[in-house]
């Protein structure tokens, strides 16, 4: 191998190492749905389509109404029977799934409240809206990041895994509560509660994530 070949190999390896280093330090860009724990592949609903889940819901609703002695139209009953046949033809254990409804509903509710464990310690970038908690003068040092405008004590708050408690390395100034922002920092999982104060009251809010933010900037796609 000539000197030029050695030089080319060395340069290729060096560039690869630099690229890996840059990628390793880059934050993972998240959407709010990424903060909800993934459904286990073993979950009975994991292999169902959205349409099949809706069919099961409709079947269960018709059966519940009949069990309560309520009047159910003939067309609704025929639709439920047809949906049951189609699901069984697709190899789906309709009776088994309906028998586990209470258990599955409880698991689904727990999942909707819990953090995604794999995000603990990750460097991430997440868009959202700011709700101030602590100030230094007129600048914000601590806030809640939420997925939509108005997600506060005046409306039902988002579930805990849709709220991030943020402490910023640098105080944040000139940010509107109605303008989206990008927040970058190290994510941590763990249940906490914070009191959120607004003009006409306050309330404790349950939170599943916290973040030490290194960057808070206006949202741009």
Total DSSP helices? 5
Mean pLDDT: 86
Overall shape: it is: elongated
Task: Give the beta-strand count.
Answer: 6
What percentage of amino acids are in beta strands? Answer: 25-35%
Please report the distance between the alpha carbons of the first and last residues.
48 Å
Poorly predicted runs are 14-23
Largest sheet: 5 strands, mixed, barrel
Can you give the helix content as a percent range? 25-40%
Class of secondary structure makeup: alpha/beta
- Following the backbone from N to C, one meets helices and strands in this order, namely HEHHHHEEEEE
State Rg. 25 Å
Strand order of the largest sheet: 2-3-4-6-5
Q: What this model shows, in words?
A:
With 221 residues, the chain is α/β, with parallel strands linked by helices. The protein is 34% helix and 31% strand. It has 5 helices and 6 strands; from the N terminus they run αβααααβββββ. A 5-stranded mixed barrel has the order 2-3-4-6-5. A hairpin with a 2-residue loop joins strand 2 (123-136) and strand 3. Helix 2 (50-67) crosses helix 3. The radius of gyration is 25 Å and the shape is elongated. The two termini are 48 Å apart. The relative contact order is 0.13.
């Amino acid at each position: 191998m000539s000197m030029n070949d050695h030089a080319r190999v060395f340069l290729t390896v060096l560039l690869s190492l630099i690229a890996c280093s840059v990628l390793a330090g880059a934050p993972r860009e998240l959407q709010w749905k990424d903060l909800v724990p993934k459904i286990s592949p073993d979950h009975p609903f994991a292999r169902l389509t959205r349409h099949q889940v809706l069919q099961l819901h409709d079947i269960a609703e018709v059966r519940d109404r009949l069990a309560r002695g309520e009047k159910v139209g003939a067309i609704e009953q025929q639709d439920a029977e047809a949906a049951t046949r189609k699901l069984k033809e697709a190899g789906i254990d309709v009776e088994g799934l309906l028998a586990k409804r209470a258990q599955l509903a409880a698991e689904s509710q727990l999942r909707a409240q819990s953090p995604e464990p794999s995000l603990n310690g990750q460097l991430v970038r997440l868009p959202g809206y700011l709700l101030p908690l602590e100030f230094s003068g007129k600048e914000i040092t601590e806030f809640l990041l939420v997925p939509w405008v108005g997600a506060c004590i005046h409306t039902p708050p988002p579930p805990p895994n849709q709220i991030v408690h943020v402490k910023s390395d640098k105080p944040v100034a000139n940010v509107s509560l109605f303008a989206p922002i990008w927040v970058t920092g190290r994510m941590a999982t763990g249940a906490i509660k914070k009191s959120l104060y607004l003009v006409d009251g306050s309330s404790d809010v349950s939170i599943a994530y916290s973040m030490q933010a290194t960057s808070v900037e206006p949202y741009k796609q």
